[in-house]
Amino acid sequence: MKELQAIQAKLKAPKNQRNNFGKYNYRSCEDILEAVKPLCDEQNCILVIVDQVNQVGERYYVQSMATITNSEGVQISSGGWAREADSKKGMDASQLTGATSSYARKYALNGLFAIDDTKGADATNDHQTPAKTTKPNSQIADSIKALQAVKDADGLKTIWSSLPTTIKNIESVEKAKDAMKAKLGL
After folding, report:
1. Does position 62 have pLDDT exceeding 80, yes or no?
2. Which tens digits make up the pLDDT trace of 22-41?
3. How far, CA to CA in Å, does 60 sit from each of 13, 21, 45, 57, 179?
4. pLDDT of 152-163, one tens digit each?
5. In CATH, what number does 1-118 get?
6. Strands 59-69 and 75-83
7. Torsion angle in degrees (nearest 10) through CA of 91, 95, 100, 106
8. Angle made by CA atoms 163, 165, 169, in degrees to the nearest 5
9. Which H or E element spans position 57?
10. Cα-Cα-Cα-Cα dihedral of 10, 16, 139, 99, to 10°?
11. Cβ neighbours for 156, distance < 8 A, ≥ 6 positions apart
């Protein structure tokens, strides 16, 4: 879809938010939407984000699907998942779900619009051999737990299709998927 390519090329969503406790900058879902809406309008596209709450084992996950549709009806989608925390000080249940939804939506939008949350090679290049990049252990563990809690082939397909490619390519996650396929007789 040429419209999506044009949006990805023009989109600027800087990390203008600041977490003073963690001492890092970030962008919110709202920041991405604010930057992308005029570009969608310019390209005559519609962006829709839909959430679904899924229970996997004892935990709840919010699955967000961001879909862009051009004027010819061609659609491209990307998904993001986030797990609700058991509790968060100062938040009631609906606020907790809302915060989890925002997080999942942000990652669905990151996938759809090719937003990279890492610095470019030029910014971090110290002309030494690059270190191997790894995903945070909690993200890998969450993916494995979600796969292990699958009850049927449809559940396995849903979980697997929603995982980012970078997580799918981690050997322990691939092994968990293969183990569930074997357990389900697939």
Report:
1. yes
2. 888 889 999 999 999 999 99
3. 29, 27, 32, 8, 22
4. 888 788 777 777
5. 3.30.390
6. antiparallel
7. -120
8. 105
9. none
10. -110
11. 147, 150, 177, 180, 181, 184, 186
Instruction: Report CA torsion sign: 110, 34, 60, 85.
Output: positive
Residue environment code for 74-111, b if the CB has 16+ CB neighbours within 10 A, otherwise e: eeebbbbbbbbeeeeeeeeeeebbebbbbbbbbbbbbb
Q: How far apart are the first and last CA of the chain?
A: 34
Q: How far apart are CA 113 and CA 133, in angstroms?
A: 22
Residue boundaries of the structural domains of the chain: 1-118, 135-186
Between 179 and 169, the higher pLDDT residue: 179
Which of these, 64, 66, 73, lies nearest to 1 by C-alpha position? 73
Q: Which SS3 state, helix, strand or coil, does residue 53 take?
A: strand
Query: Model pTM?
Result: 0.62
pLDDT of residue 6: 95
* More confident call, 175 vs 46: 46
Is the pLDDT at 53 greater than 60? The verdict is yes
Average pLDDT over residues 5-28: 90
Tokens of 35: 């930057």
CA distance 41 to 122: 32
Three-state DSSP class for residue 107: helix
Among 155, 132, 5, 4, smallest CA distance to 68 is for 4
